[in-house]
Amino acid sequence: MDTPNNPQKKLALLVMAAGIGSRYGGIKQIDGFGPHGETIMDYSLFDAVRAGFTKIVFIVRDEILDTVKEKFLPKLQGKVEVEFVVQSLDKFVPAQYQNPERTKPWGTGHALLCAKDVISEPFVAINADDFYGKESFESIANFFAKDTFGEHAMVGYTLEKVLSEHGSVSRGCGERDAEGFLKNVIERVTIVKENGKIISKEKEGDRELSPDIPTSMNFWGFQPNIFPFAQSLFEDFLKNNGGNLKSEFYIPLIVTEMIRHGKGKVRVLSGSDNWFGVTYKEDKEEVSQKLKMQVAFGAYPEKLW
């Protein structure tokens, strides 16, 4: 973010847009939701540019690469540096773990790793299909504009505000220490609302969760030294999980192991109250209405670009 003290400070945005979206039933990353068919990603890109980000890196599947380029490159050219990276199933995956039957991407941690060769500055990783709100981008840009002493960051959202009315969701549930640093984050893959309670469905049985848990919606701020640690951890992950066609390497695993081994500290920043996302097709109409309200309130112009 540009600051008077360091006008050349660089900050990249890594947009993870390679997911398949099996529960949505379509390519939600490039689906239209805004008043003029804007994607959710359009709003994140708009927020990032006005918060002072200097580079955008798109992580995509090969089959949507051309579409994403056509859709977003004209909007961003001249404003920020832009890179496109394909998250292929063989990238950083040794031959013995490559299985022609695997169709599922290796997960958000692998998506992050795929950007290793195009990012050398501090960066923020987000999901393409989540709306995070202007305040979240400003908060994390301000964090990196200061001397952060090599710290990383997680924008945490209150758990009760990031659930779906239409079915279960997967969420990274965090815990922070007295100084505001993250102690751990656990990926709970089946969270539902039942009888006024928030329940995580687990092999060991149902676990009730506090509505106030700081929750990762995959809005992370990292120093570039995360890459070698992530690569080493992914190599270990493949040794244990490479034969499982549905195994995924998540960013929360990287963060938890980094904290556990004393390799980095992660500051928890407060997220906007306006997060919303798309998991199911039924979410689309609600998201479209919320975006129209954001425009009506003046948070965004009627036409973004």
Automatic annotation (TrEMBL):
Residues 37-175 form the Nucleotidyl transferase domain. It comes from the Bacteria. This is Nucleotidyltransferase. It comes from Chryseolinea lacunae.
